[in-house]
Amino acid sequence: MVPLGGQQTGNAMGQFILKRIGTMLLTALCLTFVVFFLTNLFPNLEKLAKTQGNARMTDAEVLRWLDNNGFGDPMLLRYGQWLGVAPGWIIKDEESGEIIGRCIDFGMDPADAPRFCGLLQGDWGYSTVSDDEVTNIVWGRLLLTGKLMGWVLIVMVPSALIIGVLAGMREGSRMDRSLSTASIATTATPEYVSGVIFIVLLASSTAGISPWLAANGWFEGRTLFLGSARSAMDDITFWNFTLPVMTLALYGMGYIARMTRASMAEVMTAQYIRTARLKGVSFRNIVLKHALRNALIAPFTVIMLQIPWLLTGVVIVETLFNYNGFGWTLVQAASNNDIELLMAVSIVAVVVVLTTQMISDIGYVYLNPRIRIS
Amino acid sequence: MTQAVETSQRVHPAARMYAREFKTGQLSRREFLVRSTALGLSTAAAYALIGGAPASAMAHRRTPPMGGTLRIQMEVRALKDPRSYDWSQMGNITRGFVEYLVEYNADGSFTGVLLESWGANEDATQYTLRLRPGVTWNNGDPFTAADVAANFEGWCEAEVEGNSMATRMGSLVDPDTKRAVEGGIVVVDDLTLQINYPKPDITLIPGIADYPAAIQHRDLIGTNPLDHGVGTGAYRVASYEVGVKAVLEKNPDHSYWREAYLDRIEFVDLGQDPVAWLAGAEAGEFDMNYETVGEFVDLFAAIGWEQSEVTTAATVVIRPNQNNAPYDNVVVRKAIALAVDPQVCLDLGINGQGILAENHHVCPIHPEYAELPPITVDKAAAFALLEESGHADHEFEIISIDDDFRRKTTDAVAAQLRDAGFRVTRTVIPGSTFWNDWTNYPFSSTNWNHRELGVQILNLAYRSGEAWNESGFANAEFDALLDQANGIQDADARRKVMVQLQTIMQDEGVTLLPYWRSLYRHHTPNVINAEMHPKFEINVHYLGVAA
Description:
The complex is a heterodimer of chains A (about 375) and B (about 550).
Chain A: H1 6-39, H2 42-52, H3 59-68, H4 75-83, E1 90-92, E2 99-101, E3 126-127, E4 132-133, H5 134-169, H6 174-188, H7 191-202, H8 210-215, H9 238-268, H10 271-278, H11 283-295, H12 297-320, H13 326-335, H14 339-367
Helix pairs in contact in A: 1-14, 2-3, 5-6, 5-9, 5-12, 6-9, 7-9, 7-12, 9-11, 9-12, 10-11, 12-13, 12-14, 13-14
Chain B: H1 13-23, H2 29-38, H3 43-49, H4 57-60, E1 69-73, H5 88-94, E2 102-104, E3 110-112, E4 115-120, E5 126-131, H6 145-155, H7 165-169, E6 185-189, E7 192-196, H8 204-208, H9 225-228, E8 235-241, E9 245-250, E10 264-268, H10 274-282, E11 288-289, H11 296-302, E12 306-320, H12 330-339, H13 342-350, E13 354-356, H14 379-389, E14 395-401, H15 404-419, E15 423-429, H16 431-434, E16 443-448, H17 454-461, H18 476-486, H19 491-507, E17 515-523, E18 527-528, E19 544-545
């Protein structure tokens, strides 16, 4: 086999990234169309009209509201308007002569308004339930979720690797058995179960261990931890952020630890480890200097693939702990049929998932020289 | 034309009559207050009339110290044109800067806010509203009768989608033009406005005390108060994030016409799940809540919060819709009513947190309530009626929203009907889609908020062809009697009509209405004037925190 030169590797890598970005765009297009289609089914539009107008509107009022707010056009045309390839709708009020339109902001002269105002023009649209621009909402919420996920990764990855390595270095030992059992238990417990257990045990002044500790005078305050992470949105403390972080981290931790253990156990049976052992290298040095690096290749991919999973876990944990991040926004947008916010959320989700996968693939190439991109 | 009677000048003769009735024990204190203040008596004058010390609602209120921040757990919804507000929560936030003409107090009386006084003529067709002098908008404009007239014009625009004030304006809306009738709203001078109804109407004052009746600047009718922030109140919006948090802060550029105490009020939205509210209370995320429901009343008390309770005409109706077979048959409806014991619904639906009702929509705290013989429950007779109607094999589907007391009460109804031998299926619809079609479900439950007078809900929900008439009830005799009742300002005289209205509702089996709910609120001990209100109102101007 002819070794690849630097130039060629660069080209191959460039093509690979381009292909991945192409896939990402295509996926985003398909997904947003599906979301658009579902949110624009008539019963959903009716619900939208009632939340925006009045919860107790009549059918005739609903139809009038939909027509007056640009939902009268065919669905494909409106998808084009959202994307920015079709001109935005314009409606003229027969009586007052007032012109309103998708691209005409409040107080703007209709003559000055652009013809197109969709995603391609950088306009992400308007969130009906929040009564605000989608861009104003999504980025702030993403930042909050970023903080949560960051802390989860900081807690989850090192502890999962340590547990996995400790369990895998002596396969079948008592330590391996107990750590493996614990890992399986945490992975098998979904967030909505562990979260509730944590709240009952640690964040209630009438149940769990907080009243018991307080009765013994071992701590000050109402509860050991807070069962609501609302205050963490302004100011993250150990007190208010521990439970959501632990709920999310435990679930992923067990899984990564199991993968690390399997990888570690396999490496520990390799020929070169046996050779090192026969040469009299201490067990500690074998693990740290010879086995560890090779054992961490497999978990790397798993960790990257865990990020999309975290994104789904975030939906549950943020709702449970009332932390108004990205996952919470997704739930709110879906339950209120907030079309354009939901579309934006889907795009962001697609980008996050495919980007982490791409990073995982590229990182794998560098960690393991045997794999090549072709 | 009959002479208008002014609060400040002369006491309405009917009010004197009420006072006599109160003294002879025919009227409760609350009923006396509702009726006399609705006729234009100030609360203090009303108390003076019955010889009591002015232990008015105002006097019940303590004077809090100046300053401080209060956090209130309440849903933060997207705001819109106040006329189309459909949640009291919207009004609670904007009440900090767009105020109301009149305020309904928890004791059943009305107090003027932007009105100093009001009066009605003898047959309740002409009202004279006197504005409070010295009130200014926070943009510097003086508050005048032109502002109030513009709001009345706006309220009468029946064609505006979701404008629920149009219904409250009653006959002031011209059915042809869908706007205010000619000569209905007359500006007498800068501080006096006259309202002329084509036919008698006694619901004007309660109507303009309701949360969609926020008074906007004359040039800003039909706009969202959040967009312009113009109002007469002491506060302004510092931030507003729907579903998360809204913050009001004292407006330093505006001199408010009375005292306001708090510097800052934060409305914290913790969603619709009471479990999250309790978790938030435990975590110290807020100081008072909007409402405590069901079993959480005991839980909030258990963590040491103070409780405030008020009995109201808020209720849940489980009604068949008469536009659907077999509910068009009165025998079927009567069979249903005969099979359901309200006491069971009260116990299972809301843990007994309320008082029994009688399958008609007039509550004992309404001034014109007439006591009817107690309703009978006879499961065997109910099934016999059902067989007589020929629908014994019908599968009754009862729909409810997927939410706490409404679901449980509907379950209790379904279980009792099954006990009586009816074939019943229960369908639970999530809150996000339930309201899409709430007026048309064949048999479903709906919650109704408190109204001040008995006739008000009857006008909204049981008159033929009304938008919110969810039972499909159309009865010419009932409508005619209701028109008659709407013109009788004397509650005793009106009660004679109410007897017939209430009896028709029972005889026609219009709805199951098992109980009237008590409402609860909890707050930490340092919060001042956070008492629960029958209409969930929070007026941030009164609130305070102890130092």
